Amino acid sequence: MKKLPLFLTALSILASAVPLTGCSKTVKPGDVKGYDEGEQYISMWVHTIEDTPEGEAYKASVERFNEKYDGTYFADIEFIPRNDSGGGYSDKINASVMSGDLPDVITVDGPNISAYAANGIIQPLAELSEEEKSAYLDSILEQGTVDDKLYALGAMESSVGLYYNKAILEEAGIGVPDKDHPWTFSEFLDILEQLKPIMDSKNGYPLDMTFPVGESSIYYYAPFIWSNGGDLISEDGLTADGYFNSDKNAEVFQYFRGLVENKDMSATPIENLFESGRAAFKFDGAWEVNTIYQSYSDIDLGVAPYIVSDNWDGGRYTPTGSWAYAATTKTEHIEAATELVKWMSGVDSGVLLYEKTKSMPSTYAAYDQITTFEEDENYKALYEQLRDYGHPRPKTPVYPQVSTSFQQVLEDVGLSGKNVTNEMDKSVERINAKLKRYTR
Predict the structure, then answer these.
(1) Reported pTM
(2) pLDDT value at position 98?
């Protein structure tokens, strides 16, 4: 499986992080090109380098902000790239927590918003009107809200598609359901079994699926948990026992084990299995559409609804989450910082970011302005899934531990066949060890 884009990798947070006080960066008019007398200076850090499509989009959005608010606000953007292990930017954040040198606004990977809030790194935004909030997808507001306070607004959104090869499903006489009536776990197993003779003739598998190390596991596969009525942690993010190790979750991990035992998928990754026409289905991020279009144009691609438990109640369950903007506890100018956050996550910035990177926007109006999401059936399917069924990853101050634990159980049970109860209980112990500082 190809490497997951950096925006899906969890940030590490200093265990010793403490609430911050003080003044934001002091800059005098003339110190920064374009910053004039009487303007409120707003410093901002972003997680990429300037000389990339993403960086170019952020820079252009800041320039447009400064043009619109000339004489009132001035935003100064600093690019701090992440390295392959996720460090760099997060290391800078961590060091600045201790030194008190944070800027007014930072970008935060969506799943880590709760942890940043709990550790006193970010503060609630200034109040938004109901009209302002209604511009954003429900998943964006849910992701950015902690203890009923809005801390962050997404720069972009994301989703995972159940991709299928239209020619293979046609050959097998299999029709695809609509988004409101997805295949259930049981139905999907029957379909995979039906596809085996065809895929055997192609030296392939019905399903191109892996259990990768890192953030991609929980991002891709937590929906199996949610649609089955389970959770990985309590609603307040502080209790794992009885949630992570529930019977409902055990059923899901065993389901994954069944996929391996039944040879519906390969126990070891096979590069480009789906892209080479040797798999009928594949779970992958929204970026896969553009990858297929650009590099594997001989594949007639379709997007099926993400599958659900036989017990699904119609609730939200599909993957979401990406980078967001938040105001740090360092800033003393929360109104100005919030204006910048709203702008950088707004319609104009979302359209620009899509044009540069093909990232999915965070506002309804941005989708309305991008004709691809109406004219292209695959992008339309991904948007509708995100809009109607998007579910954020667990909100907890120990999110990195929850994510790692999910991946470990998935691999130990799914691939190695270890006892599911034992492995889930071990994970609860590890999560509880991290939760102690928040619950004692």
Answers:
(1) 0.91
(2) 84
